[in-house]
Amino acid sequence: MLPEILIGVVLAGIFAATMSTADSQILSCSAAITRDILPKERDTLFITKAATAVVTIIALQISIFGGNNVFDLVIIAWSILGAAFGPLLFIYATNCKVSEFTGITMIVIALIVTIGWRQMGLGGSMYEIAPGMISSFIAYFILSRTKLNSIKSKS
Fold this sequence. Notes:
This protein has two domains: 1-67, no CATH class; 68-155, no CATH class. Helices cover 79% and strands 0% of the residues. The chain has six helices and no strands. The chain has helices at residues 4-37, 45-65, 70-93, 100-119, 129-143, 147-154. The radius of gyration is 20 Å and the shape is globular. It starts with a helix and ends with a helix.
């Protein structure tokens, strides 16, 4: 219904917003890797640029070889995010103590279970966020009652 020139302007605006969001997410992810995960003495300009390049390559691989549509990719991304951090945030909100070892283990287990659930094709029987969250809570209850957790939290 619009003239061709206005259709081009609208499409340019949509692509600009998409690229701006993607750029921000890549920079945020690489900053989290270099500032939060790596030790401070290893935080150099080269490491920051390398982390940005690696994150960009991973995002490119997902976009090229992820045969799903955008909606499916968004659904799995939110499932992973919710399963990985939801139980941990809930436990923190209830003023329970969580060691670093337990927290990281909870996140990794939820990530593996959520992706595994989706890869096994079980998404039709139960939304993949539920098994990921359940496995994370189980990991918390097991690790919070073992000596392994107390040894790791003291070091």
